[in-house]
C-alpha cells in the first residue's frame, strides 16, 4: 500500500518523518499528517469557541433577551450597561483572573501590576470597582481583571454569569479566564501546583448538572487543552515544587462531599473514605476543590478559553485537616499566581504591551442610573 503523505516544501514523500511498517502501511504513530487525538479534540474546541464568538472575536451571549433590555444591571458587581461606560472601562481586558477571597485577589492585582510594569497615575491606588456590591471584589490592572469569586459552585456561577455579560457589553475580544485557588491533593503533597485537564463531579461525571424550569440540563465541563499545555510548559525546572496535570474533582461540599471524617455529620468510616479516594485517584483525579465544575462548564458554554490552576494544601490520602503553618500556606498560595503571571507576561511581551498606563477607574455614562445601580446592588438580596 503506498503512503498517502504528500511532498512537503523542499522534501520528497517519506523524507519528512513518515515510516513504513513491514507490510508497507505508514506507521500511524510517526505519520506527520495524521492528527493525534489531542490535535483533533483541540481542533474541535477551537471550532466550538469560534462558533460562539462574533467575527471580530468578541463574546456572543447565548441569551436573546439581553439585547431587548433597556439596560442590563449586573447586580453583584455594582455595574450596569446603562449606568457605566463598560466599553471604556473594560474594552481592553484580555485576562480575567478569579480566586476565592477579596484579599487574595487584591494581592494578585498588586502582583500582576508589578509583573507587567503597569503604572498608576501619581497619587492614586488600586480601586475595588465592585466595592458597593459588598459581595465580590474587582480590580483592573491594564488588560487584567482580578476578581474574587467566593466559595463554591453557586457563588462562582453567579459571578460568571455577570462576568460573561460584562465581556459582552464591553465588547472584549477573545478573553482568557483563569481560576487561581487552593485544593486538596489526591496522592500529591501540599505545595504541589495542579493544572486541571478537566473537571468532574463526585461521581466522576465530566459535566455540570443544572436544573432549569424543573428540567436537568448537563453542560460539559471542558477546559482548553492548548492552554493547559502552554501553562505546563511554563513550569520552571528550578521551581522547588512539582507542577502536574490531571482531573480535578469538584464537590458541592467541603466535608461529606469530599469524604472528610471531621464534619458535623459523618455516616461512613475511615475504610470507606480511603476506598473512595483510592478509586478516584486511579481514575486520574489528582485534586479536589469546589468551583472548577461550574467554572469549566460556564466558560465552555460561553466559548471562552479557560484554565484552572491550584495549589494543594495537603494530600487527602494522608489526612483531612490542613496543618501547615500560616507562613507556609501563604507561600504555597503564591505558586499558582506565579504560573499565571508568567503566562500573562509572556503574552503581553509577545504583543509588545508591557508597561501600560492607566487605572481601572469608573466611567459613568448616566449619573442617575449610576446611583440607582449602586442602590440596587446594596439592597439586592
Automatic annotation (TrEMBL):
An annotated Gene Ontology molecular function: uridine phosphorylase activity
Gene3D superfamilies: Nucleoside phosphorylase domain
Protein's UniProt name: Uridine phosphorylase
Pfam families: PNP_UDP_1 (PF01048)
Residues of the Nucleoside phosphorylase domain: 94-345
Family, similarity comment: Belongs to the PNP/UDP phosphorylase family.
Entry-linked PANTHER family: FI09636P-RELATED (PTHR43691:SF11), URIDINE PHOSPHORYLASE (PTHR43691)
Amino acid at each position: 500500500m503506498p503512503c498517502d503523505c504528500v511532498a512537503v516544501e523542499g522534501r520528497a514523500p517519506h523524507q519528512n518523518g513518515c515510516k513504513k511498517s513491514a507490510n508497507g502501511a505508514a506507521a500511524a504513530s510517526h505519520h506527520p499528517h495524521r492528527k493525534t487525538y489531542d490535535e483533533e479534540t483541540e481542533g474541535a474546541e477551537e471550532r466550538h469557541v469560534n462558533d460562539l464568538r462574533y467575527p471580530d472575536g468578541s463574546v456572543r451571549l447565548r441569551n436573546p433577551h439581553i439585547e431587548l433590555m433597556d439596560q442590563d444591571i449586573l447586580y453583584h458587581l455594582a455595574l450596569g450597561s446603562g449606568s457605566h461606560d463598560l466599553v471604556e472601562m473594560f474594552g481592553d481586558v484580555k485576562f480575567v483572573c478569579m480566586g476565592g477571597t477579596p484579599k487574595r485577589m487584591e494581592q494578585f492585582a498588586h502582583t500582576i501590576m508589578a509583573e507587567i510594569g503597569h503604572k498608576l497615575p501619581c497619587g492614586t491606588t488600586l480601586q475595588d470597582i465592585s466595592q458597593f456590591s459588598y459581595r465580590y471584589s474587582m480590580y483592573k490592572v491594564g488588560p487584567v481583571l482580578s476578581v474574587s469569586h467566593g466559595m463554591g459552585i453557586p457563588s462562582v456561577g453567579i459571578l460568571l454569569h455577570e462576568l460573561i455579560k460584562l465581556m459582552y457589553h464591553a465588547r472584549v475580544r477573545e478573553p482568557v479566564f483563569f481560576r487561581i485557588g487552593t485544593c486538596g491533593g489526591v496522592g500529591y503533597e501540599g505545595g504541589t501546583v495542579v493544572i486541571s485537564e478537566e473537571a468532574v463531579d463526585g461521581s466522576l461525571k465530566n459535566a455540570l448538572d443544572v436544573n432549569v424550569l424543573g428540567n436537568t440540563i448537563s453542560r460539559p465541563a471542558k477546559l482548553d487543552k492548548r492552554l493547559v499545555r502552554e501553562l505546563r510548559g511554563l513550569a520552571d525546572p528550578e521551581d522547588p515544587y512539582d507542577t502536574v496535570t490531571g482531573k480535578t474533582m469538584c464537590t458541592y461540599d467541603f466535608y461529606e462531599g469530599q469524604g472528610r471524617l471531621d464534619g458535623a455529620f459523618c455516616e461512613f468510616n475511615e475504610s470507606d473514605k480511603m476506598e473512595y479516594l483510592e478509586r478516584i485517584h486511579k481514575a486520574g483525579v489528582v485534586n479536589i476543590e469546589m468551583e472548577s465544575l461550574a467554572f469549566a462548564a460556564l466558560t465552555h458554554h460561553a466559548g471562552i478559553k479557560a484554565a484552572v490552576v491550584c495549589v494543594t494544601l495537603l494530600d487527602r490520602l494522608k489526612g483531612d485537616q490542613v496543618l501547615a503553618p500560616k507562613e507556609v500556606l501563604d507561600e504555597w498560595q503564591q505558586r499558582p499566581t506565579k504560573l499565571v503571571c508568567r503566562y500573562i507576561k509572556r503574552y503581553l511581551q509577545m504583543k509588545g504591551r508591557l508597561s501600560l498606563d492607566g487605572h481601572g477607574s469608573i466611567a459613568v455614562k448616566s449619573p442617575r442610573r449610576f446611583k440607582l445601580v449602586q442602590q440596587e446592588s446594596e439592597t439586592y438580596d
